[in-house]
Amino acid sequence: MQKLLIFAILFITYITYSSWVYTRGTDRASIMSSHQELGKQIYQEYNCQSCHQLFGLGGYLGPELTTVISDKNRGELYARILLENGAIRMPNFHLSPKQVNALIDYLKYVDANAFTYKTDGK
Fold first, then answer.
1. pLDDT digits (tens, 9 = 90+) for 10-68
2. What is the CATH number of the domain that holds 107?
3. Residue 92: inside a domain
4. Is residue 102, in this structure, part of any structural domain at all?
5. Of the N and C termini of the chain, which has fewer Cβ atoms inside 10 Å?
6. Are 52 and 108 found together in one domain?
């Protein structure tokens, strides 16, 4: 009887949590603009995820990019310079200014939607 009670409690907890996650648990995310969508497409086209991570998913060669825009040690200027010129381990993809701006906008979108990922309470 005790096992049945524990099962029922766990099952009800699972149903409650699932209904919260799939209804109100993701309400804070914003809708991506067409310019941010273009940045996402460029990110995927150039296979950036093979070296970089967003929300902990991706490669380990380059730095985590989820909060690169709001990071006090990096920021938008850091990201823009690397996208325009490359670095030692990052190739210069010779991106156009429009592509760089779209990627920066996409990274701003990711950063703005990283509610629980930020550690400094932003």
1. 999 999 988 877 776 555 667 889 999 999 999 999 999 999 999 889 999 999 999 99
2. 1.10.760.10
3. yes
4. yes
5. N
6. yes
Burial state string for 11-27 with b = 16 or more CB within 10 A and e = fewer than 16 = eeeeeeeeeeeeeeeee
Angle at 10 between CA 5 and CA 14, to 5 degrees: 150
Alpha helices, DSSP H, located in 25-96 = 34-45, 75-85
What are the strands, taking DSSP E only, across 37-103?
53-54, 57-58
Separation between Cα atoms, residue 18 and residue 95, nearest integer Å:
42
Length of the chain counted residue by residue: 122
Residues with Cβ < 8 Å from 66, sequence gap 6 or more?
Answer: 53, 54, 55, 56, 110, 111, 114, 117
How far apart (Å, rounded) are the C-alpha atoms in residues 103 and 80?
Answer: 9
Q: How far apart are CA 87 and CA 62, in angstroms?
A: 10
Are residues 72 and 47 located together in one domain of the fold?
A: yes
Q: What does the pLDDT look like over 67-122, one tens digit per residue?
A: 999 988 999 999 999 999 999 999 999 999 999 999 999 999 999 888 766 655 44
